[in-house]
Amino acid sequence: MKLITIPLFLLFLLLPFTVQTPVPIEGEPRHRLKFENQYVRLFDVLIPQGDETLYHTHKFDGVGIKLTDARIRDEALGGKPEDIEVKRGAVNFSRFPEPLTHKVGNVGGSPFRNIFVEILPSTGTPADAPPAAEVAGHTLVLENERVRITRLVLAPGQEAELHTHTLRGLGVAVSEGEIVIEAPRKKSEKLKFEPGKFMWHDGGIRHSLKNVGRTTFEAVDIELKQ
User: What is the CATH T-level fold of the domain 20-119, as seen in this structure?
Assistant: First the structure.
């Protein structure tokens, strides 16, 4: 029996390992497509503790907004894995001049959640973006030729005075909150937010925001220069 088992075991070692065929980002089950228009696609990425994505391919630049503290393992196809500590509220802009195929594993002690906003190619000319206005509660996170990203943090009772978003874009909540939105010639609107909730807005929107909840509210706004 041993004489039969050993050759079979050696044969198994010589067999080629099967490599998972990469899938497009929209075909990766942990990348949940929540919104799409002609400008962006928004994926709500959730990887439970000890789980990992399939190998998937990114073709377009995008913005990542981390909604949890986590420790992840990023491994490009054919490359070496890299462990990364991510912090809730962190924002990054990823460029993909060439398609990137990788997988991401959660090697930490809590779920990993990330909002990834993929910026689709534009056939138009970049928008003429005026300098960012100084508005209470808003801070500039990063700006390049494709996007302008600001962070909104409002303490309970704090208000961001009437201001204008000249560019179209997308707001993403990082925390829970209750916000009253007021716009000229419109009825005020009270909205409840939870982490990951998002709102698309066209260019030229003018409004004020007030935190009427009991906790600090945090959100990230992505304006598109296209």
Answer: Jelly Rolls (2.60.120)
